[in-house]
Amino acid sequence: MKISNINKLALSILTVLQCSSVANADDYSGNNAKHMYSAIKGKPWKEPQNTHAAVNNPAHYAWRLFVAVNWPANENNCRADRRKRLGDDGLASWEVWQTREETFLEGAQKPANWKKGCRDENFYTFPAGDYTVAVDEAVRLNKKAYNYIRDNRLYSLDEQERLAKKGVKDIDFPLGAKEVKAGWVTITEEDKSRYHWMEKVEDGKTTIYGLSAFHVMSKDLPNWFWATFEHVDNESRWPAVYPEHFQGWTVPSFDSAACPADDLQCNKIPEGYGIEGTKWANYRLRGTQSTFVDNRGEPTILANSHLEGFLDQESMSCTTCHAMAVKGAEGESMPISIVTGEVNPQGLPIGHVGALDPKIFRNALGEEVPYVGLDYVWTLRNAQREK
Ligand code: HEC
Questions:
Q1: Within a 10 A sphere around the Cβ of 234, how many other Cβ atoms?
Q2: How many folded domains does the chain comprise?
Q3: Most Cβ neighbours (<10 Å): which of 29, 46, 146, 328?
Q4: In a domain, 319, yes or no
């Protein structure tokens, strides 16, 4: 064996060792957090793509992503504005990303190119005006994610079916693709300083919306890197005001960037990110996810009490639920249900957790259905029929 091959072998063994020891890095990384953080430092306004950080220091990486995507935007070029400072008024960077509505057009027309979309007069979609879950979810795609969908015509349901028919097993978004899902709540003038907010005037009446929930998925790993953030008011304030929509934090947070290793739900922001003193200091990382199970084989759980509040939070797993995003060679989008059919004592639907049972991808006769896997991107269910 040549030297270079031996080196390669050593490297691959190292990689395997690394991977197996960090499956549950969130609980583990307290000691080397400083060291890891230096590895993920960069220009704060720049969207990071850092697989190493995603695997080895997920909580720090989640906050690094949070700062970048919430960096104030330049509305002319649909990018982060490096001259602005975190917490400045105006749209955040993710709010000039392409929306779901701009991506999946009537008749599966080809959506506009990136820059044009951002300059469009009415490119900004307001929340529907209702703080309930489904109605107000805002889904946005960064340039890499959007262009992948656009270039591969995945905005067309017929194209998805053609892939399934051809036997394509999985599509594969490029490294650096990112997507977010946001939830809003109606707030008052006094709340503004504690929220990222926007105003909508309708029939002479102004409604103020505060950002209450924020999901991020980032293609750093084959099954993506997942993180979710919530405004602190979701823990108990909104459940008291809107008990029908907010269940509170029924699953614990875990944040090894802000908290000591023995108290991962300390309910703080991390130091060193420039968050202190800004509106963003009122947001919390509820946790991150990059594997289906932990080091003990237990399913990993992660939920946002607003965005998954209409479901049983204890049985929510970003990776597991999103892995069920597939399309068959015919029929509707979403052939596989995101819930099991059972409900919890409150009557909220229970979801799938942990590694998926291969049976759910088979038909009643136990035969494999030729689904094309949509690479965890559920919003592709909004693809349209060609005219
Ligand atoms: C029970 C199923 C389920 C769970 C659990 C779940 N999601 Fe989703 N998610 C969905 C569905 C369905 C959509 C599609 C919304 C749409 O039609 O645009 C979605 C959309 C998203 C999007 C927009 C991009 C995309 O894939 O469509 C992001 C980002 C996202 N979810 C992140 C998360 C994160 C982070 C978690 C874990 C904290 C999570 N989700 C948990 C079902 C789920």
A1: 26
A2: 1
A3: 146
A4: yes
